[in-house]
TrEMBL record:
The gene is Ctnnal1. One of its GO terms (molecular function) is actin filament binding. One of its GO terms (biological process) is cell adhesion. One of its GO terms (cellular component) is cytoplasm. It comes from the Eukaryota. It comes from Oreotrochilus melanogaster. The lineage of its organism: Eukaryota, Metazoa, Chordata, Craniata, Vertebrata. It holds the Pfam family Vinculin. This is Alpha-catulin. Belongs to the vinculin/alpha-catenin family. Keywords: Cytoplasm. It is found in: Cytoplasm.
Length: 722
């Protein structure tokens, strides 16, 4: 509105329509400022320490708004230029000054309000810390129950405040760090409960005390990191060292090399050599690792040697081109640039293959959780010798997983994924010893139900992190292959002049933070379903199978819709989402046609079941298509339509999760010996059967589990009776 006023053209003739429009804009600005200032004054009254500063800023904003209203009060004037009434036409600089004052004062109000939010989070953290200190010192169950109830309420408040702040963060790196810290606090709350109960029941047990101390220490670190992110500071004024990965190093190196096409003098050869040395130093993490295969190690060493040679050749041609810029030399330089970049791409591909193949093998090997099961059994038996044997095995697994996280960080592709890898590494480092101390406590007190419950909680945390790693590995692969993130371009996205003309007439709308929060749970369920569908499609040897291809396409589109619920990805507006839902429904209809064709190959008994499921799919896709095409007006109606589209997409994905294994089963039955399925080991079948429980939204949520916290508080009466 202000821009409209300042940029208006001074014409000799001014119509009544123009004068009325200017006055309406001025009044609209003044009214908006009035509403804004009212909120600012209310905040000031609730926060006395900033009341004076806030009130001054509000007064300045109100005054500026009134000045703009006065200067634009021109509609009723026959002679706007009259000296008796100063207007925007006689004093345009006055409007500019008022606009500057308004923007400055509004900014000040926002900054002060932000300081208040930060103070609320710090105050909430301090309450949590104070109550934690009391919890550490309690000596009776009754006292513990009372204090933990208070602690639970304080953690719920902290969860709400930090959740809102996380949604407000624009920096994806900070957002990822905040999500990691809040995930730690969520999991540690339950650990703190069982570890403290175990310590109270067995006060003389050293392993129980170590177990409890570890939980308290980790929660304090997580609370401190939240405050660092919120206040944008580091303890003792130290600077945050950004983790350097091979991917980011190669990306920067290639940008510098390719920059030589435009400017031969913008950097020195020493700079390029140093950058390559840093990258090759990081590849030693792979070549020195005991878990890197011999083949990968040899390839990485060969490519490292080749990269040095290509850079030497590039530098030689580059130096000649600086002295004599001939056509032949510039062509040689172009060839050297291309060969250097190609070598770096091959190195990037090799380290990615080394890291992801190691991760895939490790995660498959650990899916049965044999060591955890053995620790529980031997602990209940009180077999200290066997517990010691299995704790050694768990320590070995922990070292393997930590190494896996370090290597994955190098190839993660984005800063948020790098941070997730670091968080996973920390989780394995800490949770491993905590499981060991919990198992030792149970072995010393085999009849203790509370010690058994405590071990279960820590084992669940380990299993949950392994499950998270499977998702993380998939996301890293997707980024590498260009299927996820901002680089991905899905063909169904609306593009100017490419799709139906109705898109032009509709005004694109973005969801605000509150609306995104409302559909976050639906979006998360959609995310988990895409994982399940991908898991099913990966079992097919014939990846060209029509059923598989349609399933993969639908999964990719559903993932884009999930990213939309987080305010990420390429679906930027609600119209993008609706168009994606239409294409998703069309793809589902195509899948139904493929199922009809496949039904001709199966026996009569099975054919009816398959056709019934195909008809369900057609009906669901038709409903989704109708919903996506429906015309709506207004913010509330648009949000309702968004919610309905995502809900119906989720229902289709749920049906798809049932259809894919059914088709696999029928293929095995009808083409015994020639099936298109890989022979699946028993643990994978178990995983699929239990997948629903293991991957529920509550367990997998990236946001703080407020409901689970509230449940802990609600159940305190039950704890007291126990």
């Amino acid at each position: 509105q202000i821009t409209t006023l300042i940029n208006h053209k001074d014409k000799p003739k001014r119509s009544d329509k123009t004068l009325q429009a200017i006055q309406r804009v001025g009044q609209a600005v003044n009214l908006a400022v009035g509403r804004f200032v009212t909120v600012g004054e209310a905040i000031a009254n609730e926060n006395h320490e900033l009341k004076e500063e806030m009130n001054i800023a509000c007064i300045e904003a109100r005054r500026a708004g009134e000045t703009i209203a006065q200067l634009t009060d021109v509609a009723s004037l026959d002679h706007p230029e009259s000296d008796s009434h100063i207007t925007i036409f006689t004093d345009k600089t006055g409007v500019v000054k008022a606009a500057r004052l308004l923007l400055a004062s509004v900014t000040k109000v926002l900054v002060l309000a932000d300081r208040i939010v930060i103070k609320q989070i710090i105050t909430s953290r301090n309450k949590v810390l104070a109550t934690m200190e009391q919890l550490e010192k309690v000596s009776s169950f009754q006292e513990f129950v009372q204090i933990f109830s208070q602690f639970g309420n304080e953690m719920v408040e902290f969860a709400h405040l930090t959740g809102d702040r996380q949604n407000d963060l624009k920096d994806e790196k900070k957002k990822a760090r905040m999500a990691a810290s809040r995930a730690v606090l969520e999991k540690c709350t339950m650990m703190l409960l069982t570890a403290s109960k175990t310590c109270l029941r067995h006060p003389d047990c050293e392993s129980a005390r170590i177990n409890k101390d570890g939980v308290f220490h980790r929660m304090r670190l997580a609370l401190e990191q939240v405050i660092e992110i919120v206040t944008d500071s580091r303890p003792n004024g130290e600077n945050e060292m950004a983790p350097i990965s091979i991917y980011s190093g190669i990306k920067e190196f290639k940008n510098k090399v390719e920059g030589l096409r435009e400017n031969l003098y913008f950097l020195s050869k020493e700079n390029l050599s140093t950058m390559l040395e840093v990258i090759l130093e990081h590849t030693e993490d792979f070549t020195d690792s005991a878990y890197t295969s011999h083949e990968h190690r040899e390839h990485i060493l060969e490519l490292s040697k080749q990269a040095k040679m290509e850079l030497e050749q590039l530098v030689s041609v580059w130096m000649q081109a600086q002295n004599q810029k001939t056509k032949d030399l510039m062509e040689d330089l172009e060839v050297a640039i291309l060969k250097t970049c190609q070598c770096m791409n091959e190195l990037k591909r090799e380290v990615h293959s080394a890291a992801t193949s190691l991760a895939s093998d490790l995660l498959k090997y650990q899916t049965d959780h044999m060591v955890l099961k053995a620790l529980k059994i031997t602990g209940i038996e009180g077999n200290l010798e066997a517990v010691a044997e299995y704790t050694c095995k768990l320590s070995e697994q922990k070292e393997q997983l930590v190494e896996m996280c370090r290597l994955l960080r190098h190839v993660s592709g984005t800063e948020p994924l790098e941070i997730t890898c670091i968080h996973a590494e920390d989780t394995f480092q800490v949770t491993g010893p905590q499981i060991i101390s919990a198992a030792e406590t149970l072995a010393l007190h085999p009849s203790s139900k509370i010690a058994k419950e405590n071990l279960e909680v820590f084992c669940e945390a380990w299993e949950s992190q392994l499950s998270d790693m499977s998702l993380l590995l998939r996301e890293i692969n997707d980024v590498f292959e260009g299927r996820r993130g901002e680089k991905r371009v899905y063909l169904s996205l609306p593009r100017p002049g490419k799709h139906n003309a109705n898109l032009k007439a509709l005004k694109p709308v973005k969801l605000d933070t509150e609306e995104q929060a409302k559909i976050a749970k639906l979006g998360l369920e959609l995310h988990l379903l895409t994982s399940d569908v991908d898991s099913e499609t990966e079992k097919w040897e014939d990846q060209e199978n029509e059923i598989v291809q349609h399933g993969q396409g639908m999964s990719s589109m559903a993932y884009s819709m999930y990213l939309f619920t987080r305010g990420e990805g390429l679906l930027k507006t609600t119209q993008d989402l609706f168009h994606q839902a239409e294409i998703f429904a069309t793809e589902g209809t195509k899948l139904a046609s493929a199922l009809h064709a496949f039904s001709d190959q199966v026996h009569d008994d099975d054919k009816s079941l398959l056709l019934l499921e195909a008809e369900k799919l057609i009906s669901m896709c038709r409903q989704l298509h109708i919903t996506a095409k429906a015309s709506v007006q207004g913010k509330s109606a648009t949000f309702t339509k968004v919610d309905a589209c995502i809900l119906k997409t989720r229902n289709v994905m749920t049906l798809l999760c049932q259809l894919l294994p059914l088709c696999c089963k029928l293929l095995r039955k009808n083409k015994a010996g020639n099936g298109c399925l890989k022979p699946a080991p028993p643990w994978r079948e178990d995983k699929i059967r239990t997948g629903t429980n293991a991957h529920t939204p509550e367990r997998r949520a990236e946001t703080f589990g407020i409901k689970s916290l509230e449940n802990h508080v609600t159940n305190m009466t039950f704890l007291e009776t126990k």
